Amino acid sequence: MLDNLRLNTRLIGFDGIIGRWDFCLNFVYLCMIGVLFSLPASGYMMSRIGNLTDFFSMNVVFWQAPWLLKIWVLPGTAFVLYIGISLIVRRLNDINGEVNNNINTAVSVLYALSAFRILFPLWIYFLLELANFIILICLIVTKGKITGKYPYDYRKEFNWGAFFGTWIWGLFNKSYKTLWMLLLWMTPWGFFYSLVCGFKGNEWASKNRDWQNIEEFNNSQEMQTIVFAVLSILVFPIVYTLIIAGIVGALIFTVVDETKTSPEHKSATMEKLDSALNSFGSLYFESYDITQNENKFYVLPSDWSGYTFTEKKDILDMASSMSASYRNKQDDDKYYSKTSELNRTKIYSSENGELLGEFYMDEKVYSSEKFSLKDALKASMKAYKFYTPSK
Hints:
The protein is mainly alpha-helical. Helix content is 65%, strand content 6%.
């Protein structure tokens, strides 16, 4: 029994106990591992969810994913689940002050279901997400009967200076592990590594510099916290905003200056834009025919079958933009836009001429006296209609 209640702060292991501090740190590591396995699935789901129906059927969309993706995600999720349960069991042992197999099993099963929540309908998904959140909060805030009696350790204090300053803070404190942030800050792992720096900051700084006493150490870290918090919250965002605004402003000024110099120059600029749009459209369209009442664009049915809903929507929108550009050049008395051309733009098969895509807004929606924003939203989500080629 004593061996089952020894301190065990490793990432993986079912024996022993783990305190709140080490549990949180290991859980951050677990999240970083989880992102590695879930990122491909997240990208796939975002590209396939094109309307509310897909959103409320995410489990169906996932099961339509390629087998290679499912082979990567499902075993990866099982591996992350194994680590998570091992942390939860040790945390429960600490909270209960003993090994209670019934409680450990019940909580582990609930956590296991929440790990595979993407496989369930949306309402079950949210219930499991809520249950998972409640479990983690309880494990974090509940004081352990065993580790709660351990003496205070200043190295297990969250270092906000390291969290805000990361690699810059690391240079001041000779903690060069923080330089990993230079590679991770633009990735999904950047925030998690900032948390790692915060959790490990006091431990790293206390080892890498000579301090006369704890008071000197605490005063130095408190001052660095203020400096890096101000820089991160106020100074850095302002600098980034000014740089981006300067770049955007320079581009706008250049475009405006070029287009207003002369009508001839403006016409040449528009010709360049039209040429670029047509060149990009040629990647998707075999040909097109713009008549008085309809804009016909032809694609290879084999290519069309491989496009996602979002890609098909973008192709139809691009065809509408090309049509508007063409009509504006032919008719100077009227102005045509992508929106005005969307209703009469259609995608056809280049092989047999069958209809593959269109935008159709039901007139009953906006002609009804009970027309509402909710009705308009539903109608617009369903207005993009795409069909599967017959061969």
